[in-house]
Design brief:
The structure holds 2 protein chains of 2 kinds. By secondary structure, chain A is α/β, with parallel strands linked by helices. Chain A is built from 5 helices and 5 strands. In chain A, strands 1-5-4-3-2 form a 5-stranded mixed β-sheet, sandwiched between helices. In chain A, helix 2 runs parallel beside helix 3 and helix 3 packs parallel to helix 4. Chain A is globular and about 30 Å long. Helix content of chain B is about 25%, strand content about 20%. Chain B contains 7 helices and 10 strands. Chain B starts with 7 loop residues before the first strand and ends with a helix. In chain B, strand 1, helix 1 and strand 2 form a beta-alpha-beta unit. Classes of the chains: A alpha/beta, B alpha/beta. The interface between A and B is medium-sized, with 18 and 14 residues.
Chain lengths: ~110, ~240
């Protein structure tokens, strides 16, 4: 499924849309970025509350196309700029990681 | 260069007091400084979790013992990695401590389960305690924001135990991002996380009197002075 189609179905707030044409094949939910690097499948959506610039660096290394920030956490400007530079989409929701994960799983 | 060896100074920039819930109640600033003096430490930091309320007592104890105090905190940043924020000026550090404590998102402390968070004076009299649980939760500042905040206040920013399996840059991020660190604290040198060009120090992270000075480091300083330390690390 394309990032933009998933985003449309979930009607989550879009903060960066650079990677919206990318295909998402899988998902991973974690708030430990070292765990994300070690275990997340490629072409995944990362569901997390880790909203800072380093999340983008990890996503880029782990071939993650889209970040979903849960619990309506504020996403700092330097994070959003880094995501735009790396071609990674960022969405935000008030859902927690559990709820967001099953909603995304239903659609994939 | 044998002649310069006499200038080696023993320094320990990572120690807790009874304000840290995980610290021993015996570990008053008085006791910490006494232990450090026995171990020949010239420059000593107190770095309680996310608060600096024991720094005034620590200052007086260090002056009594002839040890140069470094006023610090071990701040839990947004990434939930532990970060040493160190200052040469007591007032600056205490104010920074209030700012950090104010911003800390955490739960109320339950002393029976989690331990006491005791503020004392230089003679070990209890003068207060803190309500927010200091050893979990995090402040809503990213590491990059904290670096700027510390440097604006002429402090030193050193990520703590970057190679530890928990509450470290390694556990939270898995890599060391390129930032304006003044040094990095490692458990093991050489460290199994790539510490790149950053200067590696070790710290005792003492929570009990017997651990004080166990992992101090030695460098060649003209005088044990915070500004000299900054100068050394900036080279």
């Amino acid at each position: 499924m394309k990032v933009k189609d998933l985003a449309e179905k979930l009607s989550y707030e879009c903060l960066v849309s650079e990677g919206n044409e990318e295909e998402i094949l899988d998902g991973y939910t974690s708030d430990l970025l070292s765990d994300v690097m070690g275990n997340s499948p490629e072409d995944s959506i990362l569901i997390t509350i880790q909203a800072h610039k380093n999340t983008v660096a990890v996503a880029s290394l782990a071939n993650i196309n889209v970040l979903l920030i849960c619990n309506n956490r504020p996403a700092p400007d330097d994070m959003l700029k880094a995501a735009a530079d790396e071609g990674i989409s960022v969405f935000r929701t008030k859902d927690n990681q559990f709820t967001a994960s099953w909603k995304v799983h239903e659609l994939l | 260069m044998e002649g310069t060896r006499a200038a080696l100074m023993l320094i320990d920039l990572h120690n807790h007091s009874c304000l840290s819930p995980c610290g021993s109640l015996e570990m008053s600033p008085t006791r910490l400084v006494e232990e450090a003096a026995l171990k020949g430490i010239s420059m000593l930091a107190l770095t309680d979790h996310n608060a600096g309320d024991n720094l005034p007592a620590f200052d007086k104890c260090c002056r009594r013992a002839g040890i140069v105090p470094v006023f610090g905190m071990e701040v839990t940043g947004r990434e939930e990695a532990h970060l040493l924020c160190l200052f040469g000026n007591l007032k600056t550090a205490v104010r920074f401590g209030y700012e950090i404590y104010e911003n800390l998102q955490t739960i109320p402390n339950n002393p029976d389960m989690m331990g006491d968070q005791i503020i004392v004076d230089e003679d070990e009299n209890i003068i207060g305690e803190l309500d927010k649980y200091l050893a979990s939760g995090a402040v809503d500042f990213s590491m990059e924001e904290l670096i700027i905040m510390v440097h604006e206040r002429n402090g030193l920013f050193i990520p703590a135990h970057i190679d530890r399996p928990a509450f470290s840059i390694k556990s939270q991020l898995g890599f060391l991002p390129d930032n304006d660190y003044d040094a990095v604290e490692v458990m093991h040198s050489p460290c199994d996380l790539n510490s790149r060009r950053y200067f590696e120090i070790t710290g005792s992270d003492a929570h009990y009197p017997e651990n004080v000075g166990m992992r101090s480091f030695e460098i060649d300083l003209k005088t044990p002075d915070f500004e000299e330390l900054k100068l050394f690390l900036s080279k």
